[in-house]
Amino acid sequence: MKELSEKLISVVDVAEPKLRAIGAAESAKPVLHGGWSRKQVLGHLIDSASNNHQRFVRSSLQPSLEFPSYDQDGNIKIQAPQEADWGLLVSLWAAYNRYLAHIIAHLPESKLETKVRIGSGEPVTLSFLANDYLTHMVHHLKQIGAA
Questions:
Q1: pLDDT tens-digit readout, 10-58
Q2: pTM for the complete prediction?
Q3: Which of 71, 57, 55 is nearest to 116 (CA)?
Q4: At the N or C end, where does the chain have fewer CB atoms within 10 A?
Q5: Which of 45, 64, 42, 36 lies closest to 123, judged by CA?
Q6: Which domains does the chain have, with CATH numbers?
Q7: DSSP letters for 74-129
Q8: Residue 107 in contact with residue 1, Cβ under 8 Å?
Q9: Which residues contact 67 (CB under 8 A, 6 or more apart)?
């Protein structure tokens, strides 16, 4: 997990200055099919960090765990990142992911095979969940030109 933690830090270190170079007006323009802006994509990634923070920690404390499914459109609507300050979103995303890298580096080896179910999906291991978190993030950062 230490290697994954280092990769996450590296992704954040590369993406953060690229995100900061995007102006406030540009961050609010739709960039994805369906109309999501960079602000909304980054809001989604912050939400992913928040959800996975709980998944990583709670799964390390239990023999197995089930979490509710994730409503990305509902979360974007309620959290309204489109109306948030771009600099705030970038700072929160970067700081939260640096902290998650710290958590990932300290996940107990003995808990990496803990089964985690999200919604009606098939159970996955905590190790898979942590690795998939980074894959998901990089996918979205590429969509908004920050990876």
A1: 999 999 999 999 999 999 999 987 889 999 999 999 999 999 999 999 9
A2: 0.95
A3: 55
A4: C
A5: 64
A6: 2-143 (1.20.120.450)
A7: HHHHHH-GGGS-HHHHHHHHHHHHHHHHHHHHTS-GGGTT-EEEETTSPPEEHHHH
A8: yes
A9: 51, 54, 55, 116, 117, 118, 119
